[in-house]
Design a protein that fits this description.
Elements (H helix, E strand, L loop, with lengths): L2 E4 L10 E4 L3 E3 L1 H11 L4 H4 L1 H4 L11 H6 L1 H8 E4 L3 E11 L8 E15 L3 E12 L7 E10 L1
Length: 151
């Protein structure tokens, strides 16, 4: 479920949980498309037959594919109204504790760890986020991105 908040109310949200978003399937077609876009055709990602005998028992998504899906999944967690510009300012931390098998479903959950005002009338959000794998023992990704919003 999406949390909707007005820009002027963002600073009061530090520490708030944003819950979890919808499940998204990471199928082989998405993995292959990402491999084509990044020119990363390592067999553990794009060769299902060979990957069956590999360390993960089948093909897995690229870690950076999982990371790139954070943006569309993030927009499902938080909608800020009264904003003209949204900036992906960077990442403080990223780890990939578990691979995402081809065909698995992932979702994003998180908490707003820090909310601060920045120059230019903006607000910087630093959430603690987790990309969960459905029925997985470990998360696919834990991260702390930094976003800036401007009215």
């Amino acid at each position: 479920m999406t949390t909707t908040v007005a820009f002027e109310d963002l600073t009061s949200m530090a520490g708030d949980s944003l819950g979890a978003g919808r499940w998204l399937e990471v199928d082989q077609a998405r993995i292959d498309t990402f491999a084509d876009a990044t020119d990363d055709h390592q067999w553990i990602h794009v060769d299902p037959e060979r990957a069956k005998d590999g360390p993960f028992g089948g093909p897995i998504a690229h870690g950076y594919l999982t990371l790139s899906l954070v943006i569309p999944l993030w927009t499902e967690l938080l909608d800020v109204t009264g904003v003209t510009t949204k900036v992906n300012y960077g990442l403080n931390k990223v780890r990939f504790p578990a691979p995402v098998p081809s065909g698995a479903r992932i979702r994003l959950s998180g908490t707003l760890a820090e909310v601060t005002e920045v120059a230019g009338g903006g607000v910087q959000l630093t959430p603690d986020l987790v990309v969960e794998i459905e029925n997985g023992g470990k998360p696919a990704c834990v991260l702390q991105p930094v976003f800036r919003f401007y009215p």
